[in-house]
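Fold this complex.
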Amino acid sequence: MSPLLSGGCLRAVWARARDARLLVPHRGASGGPGCARDPPTGAGLLRGELDRFGGVSVRLGALDCLDAAAFQRALQASVQQWRSAGRVAAWLHVPILQSALIAPAAALGFRFHHAEADSATLTLWLGEGPSRLPGYATHQVGVAGAVFDENTGKILVVQDRNKSKNLWKLPGGLSEPGEDLGDTAVREVFEETGVRSEFRSLLSLRQQHRHPGAFGKSDMYLVCRLQPRSFAIRLCPHECLRGAWLDLATLAADAGATPITRRAARLLLYGHREGFDKVDLTADTLPAVHTGLLYKLYHRELPGRYKVPAGAE
Amino acid sequence: MSPLLSGGCLRAVWARARDARLLVPHRGASGGPGCARDPPTGAGLLRGELDRFGGVSVRLGALDCLDAAAFQRALQASVQQWRSAGRVAAWLHVPILQSALIAPAAALGFRFHHAEADSATLTLWLGEGPSRLPGYATHQVGVAGAVFDENTGKILVVQDRNKSKNLWKLPGGLSEPGEDLGDTAVREVFEETGVRSEFRSLLSLRQQHRHPGAFGKSDMYLVCRLQPRSFAIRLCPHECLRGAWLDLATLAADAGATPITRRAARLLLYGHREGFDKVDLTADTLPAVHTGLLYKLYHRELPGRYKVPAGAE
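Structure:
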């Protein structure tokens, strides 16, 4: 087995190309306290894991005691060997406390792929032509709740604090990691207004790029139809200036509402008068083919004659 | 003006609290080549920019010549002052070649917010209670093209390379940064199959969390209805094993297709037989209220009686 081929999800260790002796002793492995002051200067190699796309990943340990110059030499020799072996990409996973090793890697052409909390991931494309490496998440997801009371014909709207224009809008906010969009709508409506509600359907989707509130990334904004379960408004003083139940038909034509709010109001008016099946995208839960993880799928409700019997999906 | 208050988008400079003398000379400012070897050890402060949410941002220059220990002392003193002044958060923007300054910041509690290409952003929450800082992008966006030929009743499908199961699926792939979802569908269909097409509508949306192909982030998968403009299939050999025009009704019941592909086929069958207005979400372009940037909005087409006259939107 080549030093570059290590099965499973091993923590990166350092090995000399021929005899697998550690290039830089791990903390505690040197017999004395602290780091070795004079790491070997031979051209060591980094041990990585191959992925099925022809890339190689190196995971640095949070407690490894690494010298930046020796690391750079080892990385340079490793990159050379990975290229010779036809690897198309190198991935470097760096714990935040090992960030002193990032600049040496950058000097060899590595760049940030992403970073979050305690860890950064850097990549270097080794294949031919431009990089074909997958990017990182490109969108934040915000969800608004259109809470409509069919009995009174009124809809719940708010005005944000800290805005230059005081326009009526639907309560809503950013999805938490791992949160289904309907749950985001219900949670945000409650946090901003104190109104409890239940998810009914997805009404619309907006895609907007270079979003100022998304660190330059794209924004996906979804509007859900919610059924109110309580009506008393208790505004969040940090986020909202005003909150109200407004007549739906009035809001649909109100210049004091944002364009997307008026549009959502018109969709709801259409649904309220002619049946919500005209505007709703309903949610279904299905298992992913390769992982078995469940996902939520939203589209127009299929009439029974286009559905398959339960279990035959 | 406090040393922490600097208008505009200034590059961070280092200033002593009282006399604005630089704590660490910039490269070239010391009169000699390279870095100062003995930076002043006094408790300097970092100069940052205030944002309207009560946070303060420090931008390190790519060429600043900074000593890690002096930086840590200055950052610690600055954090103390920001806390006293009631700042709720600190943001640290670090060029990749200055990554040696990340670990000293991490030792003071800073963590990665995000990183991309040549730059990392770290944050420290200074306010009360749990952090209320906005997260970074949480979703990758993939788009599939359902290219349906109304004349023959056939739909374009492919089988991926490198999958454990060879199932028919719609061609598609990840959105490039800043790309509208309809454009992604058309581009991916062409790259994978050589078939040219035009965007017609959005058919469905899937949200899936902890996606293995998304570095643990969430995945938003959108299916678009496309109109074919060419029919000859020239498969991308890197991505596709097979490609074919299959009968839509057959695909809708085909166990050799992924569940989401069968579902999309049934939606198309419904539309093909009873009118695509039954299943389509059509796209509209609107200007954002606060920035004027254009965005795309997708929802059921509104009948004329629910629309407003052009220009009155």
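Chain A has two domains: 14-125, 139-278.
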